[in-house]
Specification:
There is one protein chain. The protein has 13 helices and ten strands. With about 270 residues, it is α/β, with parallel strands linked by helices. The protein has a five-stranded mixed sheet. A five-stranded mixed sheet has the order 7-6-8-5-9. Strand 1, helix 1 and strand 2 form a beta-alpha-beta unit. Helix 1 crosses helix 11. The structure holds 1,1-dimethyl-prolinium (PBE). The site of 1,1-dimethyl-prolinium has 9 residues, from helix 3.
């Protein structure tokens, strides 16, 4: 057990997977006897990043591609060592990858993609009339819509920003024809969506990791060691299945996390 009084403030972004991982982190911390608070769904990437840097949070889950392409955009961090160095300069540490990649992708209803003969993002170039609905964060990010449009020379002008959780309903109703997907979303299979191939390789790998403050880790090394039990333990299909429990079966994120920890790590 941790020295009495170890504390951890966990944060999560405003989407299901981030909340599930936040719940796993809080539970693994409590397993060492620490006191954990999970501040759920605080906002988008920038909100979590700034809260961690200001010392309002101790740990949250992030993605390597997001660190490279958005949070350290323009820094050309060539490898993992360079990324770790840039983080260390801000007093932050990063776990090893948890085991899955959650990349952005563009998706459409399978039948519509088939009808229009669309398989690759490049194919969208010949269909300026398509209605796009993109998550608000994607509209603004350095790796998001402006860069993607530029890279692929996309002609669409009808592009709306929306909450990611509403995008799938928009595709179902026909209000939207193309949206940005998160590749571990359970809705991709459940709604029969076609993921368009990123044929120009715009998107990097977005490996899930834990980001934490080094000053906190120095005070609570046992807690960090417990969180690191997640390293390499969540596969891509495993994460999709956890997201499916929460999003399609409406199981609370805390229960989803508890089930995973019990099955995979024997943490009760
Ligand atoms: N992602 C893809 C984004 C959202 C979807 C996981 C890389 C992120 O939170 O950074």
């Amino acid at each position: 057990p941790s020295p009495a009084g170890a504390e951890v403030r966990v944060g999560s972004k405003k989407f299901t997977e981030s909340v599930i991982i936040g719940e796993m982190v809080a539970r693994l911390a409590r397993d060492t006897g620490a006191h954990a608070v999970h501040r759920r769904e605080l906002g988008g990437t920038t909100v979590l990043w700034e809260a961690l840097r200001r010392g309002e949070l101790d740990v949250y889950s992030e993605y390597t591609g997001t660190l490279r392409q958005e949070l350290f955009a323009g820094r050309a961090l060539k490898d993992d060592a360079a990324l770790r160095e840039a983080l260390a300069a801000q007093g932050l540490g990063m776990s090893a990858p948890l085991g899955f990649n959650n990349t952005y992708a563009l998706g459409m209803k399978e039948a519509e993609a088939e009808r229009l003969g669309l398989r690759r993002i490049s194919d969208l170039r010949h269909h300026p009339e398509l209605r796009l609905g993109l998550s608000n964060e994607f509209m603004d990010r350095a790796d998001g819509w402006p860069a993607l449009r530029e890279r692929y020379q996309l002609p669409q002008r009808e592009v709306r920003g929306l909450d990611h959780d509403l995008a799938y309903r928009g595709l179902e109703s026909g209000a939207l024809q193309v949206t940005d997907l998160y590749s571990t979303d359970a809705e991709i299979a459940a709604y029969g969506l076609r993921v368009l191939e990123d044929d120009l390789k715009h998107f990097p790998a977005y490996d899930a990791v834990l980001l934490y403050r080094e000053d906190w880790a120095a005070r609570a090394p046992e807690v960090l060691a417990s969180l690191r039990r997640l390293e390499g333990r969540i596969s891509e299909s495993g994460m999709v299945a956890l997201n499916a429990q929460a999003r399609l079966e409406h199981v609370a994120e805390g229960r989803v996390a508890a089930g995973f920890l019990s099955r995979e790590l024997r943490v009760e």
